[in-house]
Amino acid sequence: MRLKDIKNTFQNQLNSIYSKEEIDNFFFMLTEFYFGVDRLKLALEPDVNIANPEAILYALKLLKEEKPIQYIIGETEFYGLPFKVNKNVLIPRPETEELVDWILNESKTNNQQSITVLDIGTGSGCIAISLAKNLPNAKVYALDVSNEALKVAKENAELNNAEVNFIEDNILNPSQKKLVSESYKFDIIVSNPPYVRKQEKQLMKANVLNNEPHLALFVSDDNPLLFYKAICEFSNKNLNKGGKLFFEINEYLGKDMTQLLKDYNFKNIELKQDIFNKDRMVRGEHDNIKSLLN
Ligand SMILES: C[S@@+](CC[C@H](N)C(=O)[O-])C[C@H]1O[C@@H](n2cnc3c(N)ncnc32)[C@H](O)[C@@H]1O
Q1: Tell me: the pLDDT tens digits for 84-137?
Q2: Which end of the chain is more exposed for a tag (fewer CB within 10 A), N or C?
Q3: Which run of H or E residues covers position 248?
């Protein structure tokens, strides 16, 4: 089958779901992935014959079912680094790259000092691994409740030659044995926890809703800050004085998140917008934070 015929088949079969640019982009990614044909070769040699088009035609079928291209290929890029992904981990998002960038900008002034960092709900490991790669003096820990997600994160740490200590634990279950009993204290705690309220499901695209792990996405409507509260309580015990807590947040809950950090008595609280001007991340510093339990 000629490459240009496959390209036409893609446009014809997908144009009711995706824009022309998206379809072209999928096609480029897939021809590079399956046949090692780059964009230039594709433009110069559209008549080249593909002897085994089965794989790319199967990918076309999955795209028709709105499966994300990253899951089809099994990899993506985050903060300039390659990451494996599968159905057990959230596909890393550009706004999370902005969070990593913020943390790095705030940490580089102290680059010589050795620091400890904890990423809670690490998923693919994207935050922990990009911090480990860019903060050579940091000892980085990453925690997730999902054993399947941790398998992917460990593979990604190896792929990127990054040293990260992975912990399987449930941040909502205050046993947190492995961390607390060893009295680990952190200079930076970061989390992009589940934060989508069930009521927001109808605003979500089908490709996210039907493919990405719900464990990574959803919280109940009546307690949407559940994870943030648990992590603030955890920080009360395990964040060093002067240490910083960084969160990615639900764009509709910026005010509530700022108030939550105030209630815990964090200092230097800052709410930050992403490049689309949406409230997307918040940071607080431990001066004299307190517990709100009882
Ligand atoms: C929104 S995803 C973030 C993944 C990754 N950090 C990122 O930014 O792409 C939330 C992650 O929290 C994990 N998680 C859900 N409930 C948890 C819990 N009770 N304790 C620890 N991790 C949890 C999920 O498995 C998922 O990997």
Answers
A1: 999 999 999 999 999 999 999 998 765 567 899 999 999 999 999 999 999 999
A2: C
A3: strand 239-248
Q: How many residues does this entry show for the chain?
A: 294
Determine what percent of the chain falls in helix, strand and coil, rounding each to the nearest 5: 45, 20, 35
Minimum-distance ligand 1 atom for the alpha carbon of 93: 9
Taking the C-alpha atoms of residue 226 and residue 247, their distance in angstroms, rounded to an integer, is: 13
220-241 per-position pLDDT tens digit? 999 999 999 999 999 998 999 9
Are 144 and 119 a contacting pair, CB within 8 Å?
no
Q: Whose CA is closest to atom 20 on ligand 1?
A: 170
CA of 145 to the centre of ligand 1 (A): 7
* Number of neighbouring beta carbons within 10 Å of residue 78: 23
The answer, yes or no, to whether any atom of ligand 1 lies below 6 A from the CB of 144, is: yes
Could you tell me the CA-to-CA distances from 146 to 170, 174, 192, 251 in Å, in that order? 9, 16, 15, 25
Q: Give the pLDDT score at 39.
A: 79
Beta-bridged to residue 222, according to DSSP, are none
Separation of alpha carbons 10 and 21, rounded Å:
12
Q: Give the atom of ligand 1 at the shortest distance from the alpha carbon of 128.
A: 6
- Report whether pLDDT(69) > 60: yes
Give the pLDDT score at 205: 86
Protein residue with its CA nearest to atom 8 in ligand 1: 192
E strand intervals along 127-285:
138-144, 164-168, 186-191, 196-197, 218-219, 239-248, 267-273, 279-285
